[in-house]
Amino acid sequence: MPTLELAQVTKHYHLRSGFRQAKLVAVDAASFELSSNQTIALVGQSGSGKSTIAKLILQLERPSSGSISLDGRDIRHWPIRQYRGDVQMVFQDPFASLNPYHTVAHHLDRPLRLHFPELTATRRRQEVLGLLERVRLTPAADFVDRHPHELSGGQRQRVAIARALAPKPRILIADEPVSMLDVSIRLGVLNLLGRLQREESLGVLYITHDLATARHFSDQIMVMHQGRMVERGQADEVILNPRADYTKQLAAAAPNPERRLAQLRRRG
Question: Based on the structure, what is the number of domains in the chain?
Answer without folding.
Answer: 1
